[in-house]
Write a structure and sequence with these properties.
Layout (H helix, E strand, L loop, with lengths): L22 H8 L6 H22 L4 H17 L3
Helix pairs in contact: 1-2, 2-3
């Protein structure tokens, strides 16, 4: 029997796994004129930033390159609406 590890405060997505998509949040982020759109977009970015970074790292990129690529993806997302 393996010793149990302490519970982590981080959600599963922060460990490199993509969460189940909450399409209501995606649709809310698309509504440019709605006050909740920015909040929904921030929620999506927080949910997917680390899993995307982990994916890029698994493709062989160095940590600083993966960070730059991940940041660039979200920067493009901010200027080009869904």
């Amino acid at each position: 029997m393996q010793p149990s590890s302490p519970a982590r405060a981080e959600p599963a997505a922060s460990q490199g796994a993509f969460r189940t998509t909450h399409w209501t949040v995606v649709l809310a982020a698309r509504q440019q004129d709605e006050p909740t759109a920015r909040e929904a977009l921030a929620s999506l970015c927080m949910s997917y930033r680390y899993p995307l970074y982990a994916f890029v790292r698994r493709q062989g990129f160095a940590p600083h390159q993966a960070e730059d690529l991940t940041q660039a993806r979200f920067s493009v997302r901010e200027t080009v609406r869904l």
